Queue: 2 jobs
Job 1
Amino acid sequence: MPELPEVETVMRGLALRLEGRRIRSAVLSRGDLRRVIPSGLAARLTGATVIGFRRRGKYILMRLSGGDSLLIHLGMSGRMAISLQTLTRTEDAKHEHLIMETEDGWRIGLIDPRRFGLLDLMATEAEDAHALLREMGPEPLEESFTPAALSTALRGRRTPIKAALLDQRIVAGLGNIYVSEALFRAGISPRRLAGSVPGARAARLVPAIRATLLEAIEAGGSSLRDYVQPDGELGYFQHAWKVYGRAGTACERCPGLPVCAGVRRIVQSGRSTFYCPRTQL
């Protein structure tokens, strides 16, 4: 599933081609994805001008003239394709569920083969009250995400810190890859109980999370399985992973065999976790 850096990259790509432009037409090929799509959504998009974008966690909000916001979630395999021509690749065209065309010829399609994504429509002024957004924690790139705020959210929790950081009520937008990477940078074991992180460890973790995400956004995200940027380019942050997907290799802090066994892979809550047992305590 695309995580915060990938969603941020997609949102910026959409903003580049859509902001300030009028949607000449919008067409839906089906009435549902993971959830039922509101009736009349295509009609509400048609004729509207895109006035701005906002990302909330792993959700994109496209704000429209008239006071509506289109909520987009890419699910497991969804992506947005931006071009100046109709799709000709059979597989992509078959899984294209929303098509928007601007007056100056840009074509934006939501492609989602597994249909785990979703679309919804709401009043812009009611975005934060939406059922999918209202309980989300702070954005990790905003000033409200501080060591003190994270310490308060984690205090007393007896789940592993890896699981706690994946909880969107603790911090918005983090997923499996970037939690593993941030914990490595902070020198914190993913097995450590979340309730032991407040204080000095949280003071290391917050800037580690922020640095990891900013570097990933700069790299266009991580291309893994289905993810590409809206213009079709791959992200390349996967080449900078320090531990994720690197089980058995020496991390940058360790000499490797025979001194240590290198990066280890474990399974937590059904998900792969990668870390260095020698330097993450």
Job 2
Amino acid sequence: MILKNRVVVMISIVFLIFLFCFSLFIGNYEINFFKGIKLLFGGGDINSLEYKILWNLRVPRAIMAIIIGMLLGSSGAITQTLFRNPMADPYIIGISASGTFGAVIAFLLGLSEGYFGIFGSLFSFLTSILIFKLSNGKRGSLDLSTLLIIGIAISALLRALISLTMYLVGEDSFRVVLWTMGYLGGGDWKKISILLVPLVFSLIYFYMNRYNLDIILLSDEEAHSLGVNIKKFKYKVLMISTFMVGFSVAFTGMIGFVGLIIPHLVRIIFGSSNIKLIPLSMLYGGVFLLFCDTVSRGVSTTMEIPIGIVTAIFGAPFFIYLAFKNRRGV
């Protein structure tokens, strides 16, 4: 990585730390800055209301926003690489909706939150396999129109089933409603510990296969000539990616466009090599989602905007831009 890119990364890390600290003071209950900093670093009264708000609500929420952003950003980069198309995204092609549907099934079965991620990952994986099979042509290429049609159709079907669930559940459907809009307010240390499992596992796997991930960008014939069983490796990477998405949407709902915006911006700045793309998509995914969560809580003192709405406000115009860019062949 050249010196300029290293400087950009270092500035981004510093900004992430600053944003993390700043987000802790955004909310309905105002906390004095100096008192909050003191509580954050182990000083002050641990029995005070400010301490409980800081360590039981705001710190876990900020950490969870970073982790979810890292998972969604890197899974978006992987999805685009696997489908060999920059417009592929877990949210757009229906993988996120399937993860939410899996979490809803676990909710209806009365299972604990630990099973939400398992069911979400399972349904996400099955959906991604279906999309992967139907969208790939005989030569392994992907037709964008086919991808979007299949993704939109599957997403619409699953959203209809989720809506049906909300209708049948009735008054207890508020939790399902939050899943459809994205919600980080339920972040706690237990969920963070669970979400660290797919994050750490994916980090280790991607690092061990960092060179093979760039081989995916080549044709299948070139990959085979380099000694890589490309079909088997693609399915493994696909499984890891949907594993990440499934756990993300199971605990926070459908947060769209993170996996679409972040990999594109990283490619523009740092290039398309997966050796840099995936870890940097994790970094900037965490920065972006924490920023959006801070915005969602800071625009009003009486209410907060669901995080999925905020990411859509940023992401939808960017997706339209990509659509026009792709049509013009720029």
